[in-house]
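To whoever is on call:

I kicked off a structure prediction for a single chain this morning and the downstream step that reads the tokens threw a length-mismatch warning. I double-checked the sequence; it's 112 residues and nothing unusual in it as far as I can see. Pasting both halves so you can look.
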Amino acid sequence: QVQLVESGGGLVQAGGSLRLSCASSGLTFGAYSMGWYRQAPGKERELVATINRFGRPDYADSVKGRFTISRDNAKNTMYLQMDSLKPEDSAVYYCNYRGIYWGQGTQVTVSS
């Protein structure tokens, strides 16, 4: 079955960096777009970044210039490099495959 497992979350001070990973199995990793989403308490889940099967990225305006999405098709893994983190980036971050499958999420907390 399809499995998506996020890792790399944690507590970081404002201005710091984190790198999230999304390891996958049970799917044709390189065939479809993938994305990172986040959900803060009391808010709806929102799109952070997507990457198509050719590696072309797209970002929410709120993270442009600070976050970088990438994928390694040989390792069936997607990444999100997050730099210059802000307290408003605090949320549970989820990876998504084809707009259908979700991981369990990883918590990112940015302290001011």
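Update from on-call: the warning came from a stale cache, not from the record. Cleared it. Sanity check on the structure: The two ends are 40 Å apart (CA to CA).
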